[in-house]
Write a structure and sequence with these properties.
Helices cover 31% and strands 25% of the residues. The protein is of the alpha+beta class and 163 residues long. The model has no long low-confidence stretch (mean pLDDT 92). Strands 1, 2, 3, 4 and 5 form a five-stranded antiparallel β-sheet that branches. The longest helix is centred in the middle third of the chain and has 24 residues. The chain contains four helices and five strands. The chain has one domain: Roll (Nuclear Transport Factor 2, Chain: A).
Amino acid sequence: MADASPPVTTIDPGTLAQTRDRPHEGAAFQARAKALWDGIVHDDAELALPFFFPVTAYRQVKAIPTPEVDWKHRLVAAYRRDIHKLHEKLGAGAAEARLVELDVAAERARWVDPGEEGNKLGYWRVFGSKLRYDTDRGPAAIDVSSLISWRGEWYVVHLSGFR
């Protein structure tokens, strides 16, 4: 018997228009946080890219001549370095470390208006979230410098500081 399930289609959210929807922490957020964690644990930034702000959205947001170049050579390059450094910080026990949660400091979230931070579109931004995990030495956390929103979903734009 043939499978009657409809085909799965994936729409790049960055190709859609921005909204003012306040970000939430549903299933898609949890999956992206898990991808970030897997990238850190396995020292593989490719695994963590689903949680990074999409280049297609960045093109819409930034009021600079070549946003995709800035995205790739500054932001993603820093994200890759940060993931590698965080993997090193986990040390020999990286494979045994267990993700607990990405604790978003939602009370600190604010809407960033167009014209701020060199942007032509607005978005929600939050500083100071924590990636919480357990090790055989006890609970620990990794600071997540900045999350920004696209269409009501949080994405990392700066993992460990700003460059």
